[in-house]
Amino acid sequence: MTDLPAGRRRAMLRTSLWLSLLALPAVAFFLVFSYAPMAGLVVAFKEFDISRGIFGSPWNGLDNFRYFFSSGDAQRILVNTLLLNVLFLAATLAAGVTLAIMLNELRGRYFKRVAQSTIFFPYFVSPVVIAIMLQVLLSGPAGSGGAVNDALSGFGLPTVSWYTEPGPWPWILTVVKVWQMGGYMSVIFLAAITSIPEDVYEAGQIDGASRAQMALRITLPLLKPTAAVLLVLGVGRIFYGDFGTIYAIIGDNGTLFPTTDVIDTYVFRSLRQIGDFGTTAAIGLFQSVVGFVLVATALLIQRRYSKETSLL
């Protein structure tokens, strides 16, 4: 930069100054709401007392972590969190790719817009509304029957008391998640599809490829970078349960806890019922550390085996 003319250097400095000022609100936001609260992580290593405050409470080492991992709930909660998030991630990615390819193959412009808006709409539906809709489908407004059980009865099949049977709920929650997030994921993949050069498809047509073959051999492979980014982001949050949706649907129904109780709902319930700030902070810190390790591992694996889609 010292070799540049003085006028050019001043112009570059002015540009850098304006760009820094433009970024200042975002930097301040993250400093105040993301980095400053990290000081509260010390609660995970303390026997927290509200009257003494965060820094006045006595230290208790790793007792909060021991309390959680020695409880009978730890293994169940960790397995549920991991299993549900793996199901959610795999199902929503698959649904997003499938819907995006299907939308891309539609030729009616107005029908395509209506279809895209329709499948994207569930993303904006409140978890409370989803819980009410699911209750109508599974148990009915009065707590008995429900549209699903009515359909089963119509085919001569036995009905199910859905809200007392924990077994089917991982799959029910996965269907809800796909319904809620499938359209959102499809928009991301559809944006990636629109960036594929038309020359590639024209070459496929010249070679005699059908629309299905081009979707399978051209579109799908070129979506790998987008899928890789979404996969890495999803892996980073694989120990974070979808608290809003799960708690709105399950609530405090202890009968369903064996297959639906995740870390986030357990922390909320513990904080609400026993007010144990130290243990809940320890669990939150554990989530963050595991999430960081998983993201770093996923990025290293991606860089090693698929450099063309790596984020590093």
Automatic annotation (TrEMBL):
Family stated for the protein in its record: Belongs to the binding-protein-dependent transport system permease family.
Topology in the lipid bilayer: Multi-pass membrane protein
Domain ABC transmembrane type-1: 78-298
Pfam families with a match to the protein in the record: BPD_transp_1
Transmembrane segments: 77-102, 114-138, 171-193, 214-240, 277-301
CDD domains attached to this UniProt entry: TM_PBP2
Record's protein name: Carbohydrate ABC transporter membrane protein 1 (CUT1 family)
Subcellular compartments: Cell membrane
InterPro entries listed in its UniProt record: ABC_transporter_permease, MetI-like, MetI-like_sf
GO biological process terms held by the UniProt record: transmembrane transport
SUPFAM superfamilies: MetI-like
Stored Gene3D superfamilies: MetI-like
PROSITE patterns: ABC_TM1
Domain of life per record: Bacteria
